[in-house]
Design a protein that fits this description.
Length: about 750
């Protein structure tokens, strides 16, 4: 009898595993991609566990929010609105050293499928360690520079709760796990496998379509304190044992010998146990001259290598977790947040520069990020935190739309909320238009609660889901953008993080170029070797500091005749061999000279075709360190010469030329000494290159051959120059080529080529 019971039990277990395997097999990566691209997601605060995870006295998971009636009903409302995929933070069950409990995990699953029984689900699985893990493994923890702590001191800090994991408690000396810790990856992998095996045995396994891996600050695979721009409040950098030892091993492999490594890092007494990390000042603020800013100094290689290594660690951890998740789930899709260099100055410190490594991973299928927070209100272009279009060439991209509606006017995101329902509507349609154009998925995210529950906002979600369904079903969409925006994430290794420069270099230029009234595409520099360039009439190199003439020649010959080329700032000044102004001259055809004594304040004034003040001022009056010689960031003067046309000069505190154009072969080059081009000037450049515009300037345009979304900053009236017939999904009006369109300030039209109204 006992043997029979054992046999029955084993058979039952085998059947459970067989059922799980059968369910999992239904969800391969291609099916996941198809479902996500064709259906929206919803993220809410249902069953939100504490991060880092912790256990209550009962042994159950500590929670930020519970699965209550309000959040359960929210799931039901969004499901009824047509949103078919749910995603939430979920308890992983990993609550302490050798402590696992899945009570809250099961509660979340039950609540989701009780209220959306036909929904699909993607859990967000956070793999930050319980603090007790750091107390037990002090050498595997993050110790912020410059602190050198004993194991006993580290353990004591965790036992007292004196650790910083969100960059908001500057006095504390330790974070959570080091991203360089192999033991963290091993132990978190065990927790991940246990979690997945648990949920794959559940009755909901066939509704779970994939796994979103998360760790670091806010689960965004970001290093502790990496968000902060005010470095004066923080001690930053990992000075722990796990980091320094693995960093040494990585460096040894890179340079081939201990001697070469010691020379590269300018540390004659280097050993695996005494790697001297650079101060935050050396990594960032204390630059002595322009060459030093672009990391051409004796200890600069160490700074570059730390950021390169940290990105490598982050991507390697994600690849390892992806492999575990795929194995445990039977091959379901796996992804993570990554690549935040468009909006974050410290992207290297964050660990977000290993694009090529992660995009080559067979274990990561999708990459996601919150939408850009810069210039994201109605009338603004919005955008991405990362190079989303570039990512979408190799992986599925998923956008997190945490846009507060007009109903949210409190808390830390109130400055990002709209002022009226009409503005909320504009933002919602703009974000959808943006994501459809690159074949991305997205989730509606309610970060604060009740963002989509009001009848008018919920009705708009319902309308959007209905209207975009045929666009999603139509796979014939083709882009025809004539403006290319190019960024180089690796260039950030060759320059010091600088919030002010980053704002001018990327955070403002991307919105500005998207306001010219035509569609814009964005690729990374490394993409250009195999991207078709034949349709681009304007190429805007946002941060070409590491470009070489050899790289440019390969790109140039594939561009169409008459194209305009914009060198936004410091073109070619920091190739791989070090700071080199001669490389810049060979690249652009003009000679630039660094301004080593930049005044606290100056203006830029246009001349000729660019007559008028281009930008009010550049104010560098605020210092960035008590002993710093420099303020702001480097500025370059451009020499006049044969074939050089002056378009802007410095004024009010600085003399010299700030912007020129030069015809080289059949192309016109625009060279900037400081990043400052506005939408009006970018429109002029696009006009000279004979770009086909969809709308007037100060209009954002997203779309492809299936639809076009137009989102003006100011009220506009113009004649439609698109062939065919279109129906505005927002107003229901129909238009054809030559018809006049009027759009109010901060309004929107979403023109679908299918003119017939949907039932």
């Amino acid at each position: 009898m006992r043997k029979r019971l054992i046999y029955i039990a084993l058979a039952s277990v085998a059947a459970q595993f067989a059922c799980a395997a059968e369910n999992a097999a239904k969800w391969d990566v291609e099916k996941f991609k198809d479902v996500v691209v064709n259906n929206s997601m919803f993220w809410c605060k249902l069953g939100w566990p504490c991060d880092p995870p912790a256990a209550l006295k009962s042994g159950k998971a500590a929670m930020i929010t519970q699965t209550d009636a309000k959040t359960e009903n929210y799931v039901k409302l969004m499901s009824n609105a047509g949103v078919k995929i749910m995603t939430t933070n979920i308890s992983t069950g990993w609550l302490g050293n050798d402590l696992f409990d899945y009570t809250e995990t099961d509660k979340s699953l039950e609540a989701i499928f009780k209220n959306a029984p036909n929904a699909y689900y993607m859990p967000r699985v956070k793999l930050n360690v319980p603090p007790t893990w750091c107390a037990k493994n002090p050498e595997e923890a993050t110790v912020f520079y410059p602190f050198k702590l004993t194991n006993a001191e580290i353990t004591d800090l965790y036992n007292k709760g004196e650790f910083d994991f969100h960059g908001i408690r500057p006095k504390f000396k330790v974070g959570l796990q080091s991203f360089a810790s192999k033991k963290w990856v091993a132990d978190a992998s065990i927790a991940l496998r246990k979690f997945i095996e648990h949920v794959e045995k559940s009755k909901y396994a066939d509704r779970i379509i994939g796994y979103h891996i998360a760790f670091g600050v806010a689960g965004e695979c970001a290093n502790w304190r990496g968000w902060e721009e005010d470095r004066t409040r923080y001690n930053m950098g990992d000075n722990g044992k796990a980091f320094s030892r693995r960093f040494y091993d990585w460096g040894l492999e890179k340079y081939g010998s201990h001697e070469a490594l010691a020379k590269a890092w300018n540390q004659p007494n280097l050993s695996r146990e005494n790697v001297e990390m650079p101060s935050t000042e050396r990594r960032e603020s204390l630059w002595q001259n322009t060459a030093d800013f672009f990391r051409d100094s004796p200890d600069a290689q160490l700074c570059m290598d730390i950021e390169d290594f940290f990105s490598h660690c982050t991507a390697t951890a994600l690849d390892s977790f992806g492999k575990v998740a795929k194995d445990a789930s039977g091959g379901k899709a796996v992804g993570a947040f990554y690549g935040y260099y468009m909006n974050v100055p410290r992207s290297g410190y964050l660990g977000h520069l290993a694009y090529n490594q992660l995009l080559a991973s067979e274990n990561i299928d999708f990459i996601c990020a919150p939408k850009a927070y810069e210039r994201n209100l109605a009338g603004d272009p919005g955008g991405y935190q990362n190079a989303a279009m570039s990512i979408s060439r190799k992986k599925l991209y998923i956008d997190e739309l945490d846009n507060p509606p007009h109903t949210y006017k409190k808390g830390d995101m109130s400055n990002l909320s709209s002022d009226s329902m009409s503005q909320t509507r504009t933002v919602m349609w703009r974000e959808v238009a943006k994501d459809l154009s690159i074949g991305a998925g997205f989730w509606w995210m309610d970060l604060k609660g009740d963002w989509y529950t009001t009848p008018d906002v919920l009705a708009e979600v319902t309308k959007i889901e209905k209207e975009i369904a045929p666009i999603r079903a139509d796979k014939s969409g083709k882009r025809s953008a004539q403006i290319l925006y190019v960024t180089d994430e690796r260039a950030f290794l060759a320059m010091r993080p600088n919030a002010r420069l980053h704002d001018d270099l990327l955070r403002q230029t991307y919105p500005d170029i998207n306001l010219v009234g035509a569609q814009v595409e964005h690729y990374r520099l490394s993409d250009l070797k195999d991207v078709d360039l034949s349709n681009y009439k304007v190429v805007f190199f946002a941060n070409p500091v590491a470009m070489t003439p050899k790289m440019w020649r390969k790109i140039e010959k594939r561009l169409p005749e008459g194209a305009a080329v914009v060198w936004n700032y410091a073109a070619g000044v920091r190739p791989p061999n070090g700071f080199d102004m001669e490389n810049s001259r060979k690249l652009t055809g003009v000679k630039m000279t660094p301004v080593e004594d930049v005044p606290e304040k100056f203006s830029i004034v246009g001349v000729g075709d660019f007559e008028g003040t281009i930008n009010a001022t550049r104010n560098f009056a605020e210092g960035i360190g008590a002993t710093a010689k420099k303020r702001g960031y480097p500025v370059f003067k451009i020499e006049e010469g044969k074939g050089v046309k002056v378009l802007a000069k410095y004024a009010d505190g600085l003399d010299g030329v700030a912007l020129v154009s030069k015809k080289i072969g059949d192309k016109t080059h625009y060279i900037c000494g400081v990043p400052f081009l506005t939408p009006e000037k970018l429109r002029k450049i696009a006009e000279s290159a004979k770009v086909d515009f969809v709308a007037p300037e100060y209009c954002t345009v997203y779309g492809d051959s299936r639809y076009v979304g137009i989102f003006p900053k100011y009220a506009v009236q113009f004649k439609l120059n698109l062939k065919g017939e279109y129906r505005d999904a927002i107003s229901g009006k129909t238009y054809k080529e030559g018809d006049e369109i009027s759009i109010p300030e901060k309004g929107a039209v979403f023109l679908i080529r299918h003119v017939k109204a949907l039932p």
